[in-house]
Each structure stands twice: as C-alpha cells, then as structure tokens.
Amino acid sequence: MKKLYYSIGEVSEITDIEPHVLRYWETIFDDLTPRKNKAGNRTYKEDDITLVLKLKELIQEKKYSTAGAKKIIEGKEDEKSAASPEPLSAEVKKDLQEVKLFLQKLKEKL
C-alpha cells in the first residue's frame, strides 16, 4: 500500500538501510531532505525512498564513495566515467608479467 509519508523506521525497513545511515546521508546529499512533522519526526516521500535506493546501489553495491555518489546524483559525472577499474590481484599481476616476458622473448626471436 502506497502512503504519502513514511517514517524513518519504515524507510529503514523498506530499503534495508539503518536509520543512522539515513540520517548521515541527509548531511551529505542535498537532495535527501525529508521534512519533519510537528513532533520533529522525519517524514519521507516516495521520491526520497527512490533516492535512498539509488544511493544504496551506488554506495553499497557498486562501491562508490559518498563523494563519487554525490557527483553522480548531482549530475556532475555519469556512472560510466566515474567507474574506476578494479585493482588487479597479485596473482593476475604475476600472470601478466609472465605473459609480458614470454612476448618479449618471442619478439627477440623474430
């Protein structure tokens, strides 16, 4: 059932993000600004939940920093250009070095 407003507890349950993380993200992301009711409780709208889910994808699943996620959310950078390659493992580096040496020796024989 869709509602007009959701509490921080409901948003936490829907998105599987802890309330303290939601409050922290509010301090970083200008677009995440839930209103507060007369009692001072945060009231999130559907758009806020959509943004939280996007932030969860960027930060927790795609492993962006909060600064990188902020650039993407603000439209200053797209996800493709912001993506940095994964660091190579020591095993892969070793294998690449062996291939390089093999190719160098093969080139010398030509």
From TrEMBL:
<protein>
    <recommendedName>
        <fullName>HTH merR-type domain-containing protein</fullName>
    </recommendedName>
</protein>
<dbReference type="Pfam" id="PF13411">
    <property type="entry name" value="MerR_1"/>
</dbReference>
<dbReference type="InterPro" id="IPR009061">
    <property type="entry name" value="DNA-bd_dom_put_sf"/>
</dbReference>
<dbReference type="InterPro" id="IPR000551">
    <property type="entry name" value="MerR-type_HTH_dom"/>
</dbReference>
<keyword id="KW-0238">DNA-binding</keyword>
<dbReference type="GO" id="GO:0003700">
    <property type="term" value="F:DNA-binding transcription factor activity"/>
</dbReference>
<dbReference type="InterPro" id="IPR047057">
    <property type="entry name" value="MerR_fam"/>
</dbReference>
<feature type="domain" description="HTH merR-type">
    <location>
        <begin position="5"/>
        <end position="75"/>
    </location>
</feature>
<dbReference type="GO" id="GO:0003677">
    <property type="term" value="F:DNA binding"/>
</dbReference>
